[in-house]
Amino acid sequence: KKKKKKKKKKKKKKKKKKKKKKKKKKKKKKKTIVLAMGISKDKN
Asked: Where is the composition biased (Basic residues) (predicted)?
């Protein structure tokens, strides 16, 4: 049970991340992404 749950979570996370990145790139302009990335890097 533990192994199956971990595998499912990893697969879901990878798919969600890829979908989110694609949607953000297509919906938002490149300039917005660069700005958001810069702010995120500065905060981190």
From this structure: 1-32
- What contacts 44, CB < 8 A, 6 or more positions away? none
Whole-number pLDDT of residue 44: 44
- Structural tokens at position 7: 């595998």
- pLDDT tens, residue by residue, 13-41: 555 555 555 555 555 556 666 777 666 65
What is the rounded CA–CA span in Å between residue 36 and residue 44? 12
Residue boundaries of the structural domains of the chain: 2-43
**Residue 12's CB: how many other CB atoms inside 10 A?**
10
